[in-house]
Amino acid sequence: MNVILPIFWGIITLSLIVVAHEGGHALAARAVGLEVSEFMIGLPGPSITKKIGRTTFGITAIPFGGYVRVPALEGEAENGLAAELGAGELSEEARAVPAWKRIVVLSAGVVVNLVLALTIFTLVLTLWGVPTDRGYLNPQPDAPAARAGVRAGDKVVSIDGKAVADFDALVVAVDAHKVGEQLTLVVSRAGRELPAMTITLARHPDADSASGNASGNASGSADGSDNTDRADDTSGNADDPTTGTDDAAYLGVSPRYVNVRLSLPRAAAMSFNYLTLTARGILNLFRPSTFSSTVSQSSSVIGIAVIAADAAAAGPMQYATLIAAISLSLGLMNILPIPPLDGGKILIEIIQLIIRRPLKQNIVIGVSLVGFGLLAAFMVFVMYNDIARLFQ
To answer: What whole-number distance in Å separates Cα of residue 13 and Cα of residue 308?
Structure first.
């Protein structure tokens, strides 16, 4: 297994998203008149720095992620634990900063993550498109369809005289037949309708090993390397339209997806739909009935690194889409009201506004420590799942 590329792309991907998040905090702090003492790329440690104005910019020895320091948010910590959890007691000068300013700064990182994700999704959908089933086919080698003359990129027009618009409709039509029966298939090639082909359906060559799968099940996945709606602009990696029992009729084609560009309003609407789906997925972590399945589908930095390497190899559009997806997830996770996440810190600010006094530092530290423990346990468990998947 090549581990260099996943490590490289994992670091690049997560660092880009984290730096954007921290940049949101920094820009918001400057916008409301708060000092930003440091803006660093990488984990805390030895660094190369340059001071510009009152802010020290730099890159550390471990350029993974990043952080900013806003004194009005961090306060003064009497011990290392409070400092690490961001639970330092505010100085008199910091207490003079209106709470709304601290809330704005704390919220800005999440806002940047969400805006970044929605912008990338919208651009990808308008410039590149969404993989769509338009009835284009990929014949399997030496299958009935291929022997009858079906070629890659042919578009199904009808079966037995009935119009067929997409691959799902083709599956339904094939399922109506049995092994040994004939069907009449009409396809178009390069925009020209070809004479009807009479095809004798065969028994699936893997019927014995595939026994138990539902006849007619078909699925497809596009590699997403294209950005126009043309028959030769797609890839089909789907199963055959009929796989399974001995009685399954086998035509031997899979879907060949095309990328269809969306209008800006439709792309924006779909991007917000991704946001809604991601939010629902995160909320499923807090439902006992869906917790296990949601965790099993989650990825740690290990899984993200592997996915990032694959996306980078597939092309810039796939990689951009991955960055958008991770940025969306990071933003929504960070707004959860769990200290030491941004959402938890905002919750503490709101509570202090309501009770009109600062919470005791030991309470803030205790709550933050519990939240950190829960998050750490979750990440360790997800990391274990990622490692287990790598060796399956």
So the answer is: 7
pLDDT at 252: 93
User: Does one domain contain both 170 and 245?
Assistant: yes
- Cα–Cα distance, 325 to 298 (Å, whole number): 12
pLDDT digits (tens, 9 = 90+) for 253-280: 999 998 999 999 999 999 999 999 999 9
315 and 220 within one domain? no
Is the same domain home to 160 and 234?
A: yes
Q: Which residues of 196-223 are buried (b: 16+ CB within 10 A; e: fewer)?
A: ebebebbbbeebeebeebebbbbebebe
CA distance 275 to 290: 19
Category of 327 on φ-ψ map: left (φ > 0), alpha (ψ -120 to 50) or beta: alpha
Residue 275 sits in the same domain as residue 385: yes
What confidence tens digit (pLDDT) does each residue in 290-321 have? 888 888 888 888 999 999 999 999 999 999 99
In this prediction, residue 245 carries a pLDDT of: 45
CA distance 5 to 312: 10
Question: Do residues 304 and 155 both lie within one domain?
Answer: no
Residue 239: the pLDDT is: 44
Question: Does residue 108 share a domain with residue 173?
Answer: no
Please check whether residue 228 is in contact with residue 132, taking contact to mean a CB–CB distance below 8 angstroms.
Answer: no
Domains: count for the chain: 2
What is the amino acid identity at position 136? Y
| HSE-up (13 A, CA, CB side) for residue 352 | 21
Q: Tokens at residue 320, please? A: 């951009």
The boundaries of the domain holding residue 98 are 83-128+268-390
Residue 168, domain CATH: 2.30.42.10
**pTM for this prediction:** 0.77
Is 274 inside any structural domain?
yes
Which residues make Cβ contacts (< 8 Å) with residue 167, sequence separation at least 6?
133, 135, 137, 156, 218, 220, 238, 241, 254, 255
Evaluate whether 153 touches 256 at the Cβ level (below 8 Å): yes
Say what the pLDDT of residue 64 is.
87
For the chain, what percent of residues have pLDDT higher than 90? 59
Q: Compute the C-alpha angle 353/357/362, nearest 5°.
A: 110
- What mean pLDDT comes out for the span 340-359? 91
The one-letter amino acid at 55: T
